[in-house]
Amino acid sequence: MAVRTEPLQAFPAPSGRSGFLWDAYKRMRRNRAAMISMVVIGMLVVTAIFADLVAPYSPSEQFLKSSGGVVENPLAPRRTGKFERPTADHVFGTDQLARDIFSRTVVGLRISLSAAFFAIVVVTVIGVVVGTFAASGSKSFDDLLMRVTDITYAFPDLLFIILLRSVFADSLFGFKSVLGIEASVLLLFLAISLTAWPTMARIIRGQLLTIREMEYTIAARALGARQSRIAVRHWLPNAVGPAIVEATFLAPRAIFAEAALSFIGIGVNPPTPSLGVLISEHFSWLQINWTGVAFPTATLAVLFLAFQFFGDGLRDAFDPRSRR
Amino acid sequence: MTRYLLGRLLQSAITLFFIALITFTLMHEVPGGPFDALAGERVLSVEFVRAQEAYYGLSDPLPQQFARYMGNLLRGDLGLSFAQKGQKISDLILDKMNASLLLGAMSFTIVFGFGVPVGVVSAIRRNTIWDYLGLALSTSLAAVPAFVTAFIFLIVFAVWLGWFDVRLGKDFGDSLGSVRNGLLPALALGAPSMALVSRLTRGAMLEVLDQDYIRTARAKGLSRGGIYVRHALRNALIPVVTLTGPIFAGLVTGSIIIEEIFGIPGIGSAFVTSVFQRDYGMIMGTTLLYATIIMLMNLVVDLLYPLVDPRVRIA
Predict the structure, then answer these.
(1) In which residue ranges of chain A is pLDDT below 70?
(2) In this complex, is the C-beta atom of A167 within 8 Å of any C-beta atom belonging to chain B?
(3) Are residues A261 and A276 in contact, defined by beta-carbon separation less than 8 angstroms?
(4) What is the pLDDT, as a whole number, of residue B163?
(5) Is B218 helix (H, G, I), strand (E, B) or coil?
(6) Which of A205, B52, B219, B300 could be stapled to A134 by a disulfide with Cβ–Cβ 3.0 to 4.6 Å?
């Protein structure tokens, strides 16, 4: 999707591919941490998409073991199949209901990543539309956006999400599930997105206002380019950098919000195994089996680190001047 | 100056009004009322619930209720709690605020007490193993939210080493002895901000150390320590000082999850409980308090900025 600018005939085209996104990619390729993170994110996304194939068992299947009536050694701990330490059969062990933690973590990963994906799509769409309107529309609309952002910045994010999430108990306008996603999950995603779009709108607005005054806009206009061509060929590629960076950093925020809210019991409803639900369920049994908390937590940590390094890499690649 | 301050305060008041309006509307949209929630334990007669609702003015139209709430708020009255019989919201908040403020203050001390020195050392010993170690540590801590750090701490210190009890925060804030129990939560809460502060200090310090006046000081024969502390650090701290306000606000208002994990009886966990109990007064009180803290801290920093950096003047 690299946007290519056609060079004027008087100047020979530089050899090889060029274009805004391609240049940024070339700069990022030198950043090892960002490239590794990109591969990690890619692998996690593939795992999440094919979660049903990757997970060896169903997330709700129980592996109870009966002692068979005859107790051979009464002093040995009873093997019930619950709280098993990691073994070859259950690489992350089993939980308090003898379910496979690995399978549940893989499905949880899918929920976390869909939270990120959903937030990015919704926030980008609202942000671009509102931001463009604010930059090109009336003054009063612009002022309104500023007031809305003031309120969002002063409103503690988590409080707002908790309240909004509680308003709709388990159904979204009467639907229990939409497109196969549970309404409670969807609502949580929606609440997360609603706290984040004003920042995106502000970024888009700021970018457009700056670019409009740039020399290359004037140059393109002087060369007789149409307004639509200027917008698509010149403004969009230059405005898109900070927006992509902001969108990348939205992912860890959405993943965090899902996990944190599910942990306190206002997010995804059990038995749906989101990472937050998993941590919350296993938290009560921390002293008996810490692996149940450790593996979902580690998955979250990998997600956060990967998105952070990838986002940092993107920011440096899009704006070489911002390098430390 | 007075004009600027008045303008800012007016703007904050308007923002606060809309936050109150949004919270009020959302909270009344939450299914079930304060007395339905109580009925989970005891069976309440319909007549009793109606009588209670009438007593607390809950059967009036919502706009009327909102107007009454705002009127009382202006007189400093936050109303009564539905969940804790006969308790004033202001008393409950003050009571719960102790633990949250203490936790926030401990975190704040850790954030700047460690963040600034780590940043300074990284800058002075630039491109050595110490610099890289500090950078790796702070980048990782900044990326991972307190939520995850807290569980890592619990597994390592409470389960493996057995130094702490898992629910270590339950009497935090009651006595001086309980302060020790706040170390782990405060460290987890402050870790991301600490990383941010150390990275910022390092960057600012490097920039200052490149300046001509540092070379002049060195040429005059001043001791290295004197240059670092009296000439470099004083200027490098300018951007760090501007972060104190937002970080403090973030620590105090961002401790909901940490309080839930460690069982600290603070304002954050009280908010979560109040949502479950539909304790309207408590929900409003907490939200408005948090919003006030955030806006106040931003204002304080904007006012502080010209004091630490004389080049900046308030318009």
Answers:
(1) 1-20, 63-84, 88-91, 96-98, 169-181, 320-324
(2) yes
(3) yes
(4) 79
(5) helix
(6) A205
- Here the tokens at position A201 are 């709108």
The pTM score is: 0.80
Beta-carbon separation of B254 and A158 below 8 A: yes
User: Does residue A169 contact residue A199 with C-beta atoms inside 8 Å?
Assistant: no
In a domain, B132, yes or no: yes
For chain A, say whether B31 makes contact (Cβ under 8 Å): yes
Band of the pLDDT at B275, cuts 50, 70, 90? confident
Chain B: residue whose CA lies nearest to A275: B148
Query: Which of B1, B2, B3, B16 is CA-nearest to residue B296?
Result: B16
Is the CB of A294 less than 8 angstroms away from the CB of B253?
Answer: no
Contact between A230 and A220 (Cβ < 8 Å): yes
Contact state of A263 with B257 under an 8 Å Cβ cutoff: yes
3-state class (DSSP) for residue B72 = helix
Is residue A304 less than 8 Å (CB to CB) from chain B? yes
- In degrees rounded to 5, what are phi and psi of residue A231? -60, -45
- CATH number for the domain harbouring residue B158: 1.10.3720.10
Interchain proximity A151–B139, CB inside 8 Å: no
Q: Is residue B313 part of a domain?
A: no
B179 domain residue, yes or no: yes
Residue B16, chain A, CB below 8 Å: the answer is: yes
Write the pLDDT tens digit of every residue in A294-311.
Answer: 888 888 888 888 888 888
In a domain, B241, yes or no: yes
Q: Return the axis-axis angle of helices A183-212 and A236-264, rounded to nearest 10°.
A: 150
First to last CA, chain A: 29
CB spacing of A159 vs B151 below 8 angstroms: no
Dump pLDDT digits (tens) for B136-156.
Answer: 888 778 778 888 888 888 888
Q: Which residues have a Cβ under 8 Å from the Cβ of B25 and sit 6 or more positions away?
A: B62
- Supply the Cα-derived Rg of chain B in whole angstroms: 24
Length of chain B: 315
Domain tally for chain B? 1
| Cα–Cα distance measured from residue B45 to residue B92, given in angstroms and rounded to the nearest whole number | 28
Would you state the pLDDT for residue B174?
66
Phi/psi for A175 (5° steps) reads -90, 135
Instruction: Report the residue of chain A nearest B258, measured CA to CA.
Output: A260
- The nearest alpha carbon in chain A to B158 belongs to A287
Question: Residue B100: which domain range?
Answer: 92-278
Three-state secondary-structure class, residue A19: coil
Q: What ipTM score was computed for the predicted complex, to two decimals?
A: 0.81
Domains, in order of start, for chain A: 41-55+91-322 (1.10.3720.10)
A155 touches B: beta carbon within 8 Å = yes
- Alpha-carbon distances, residue B242 vs B245, B302, B315 (angstroms): 7, 8, 18
Are B259 and B189 within 8 A, CB to CB?
no
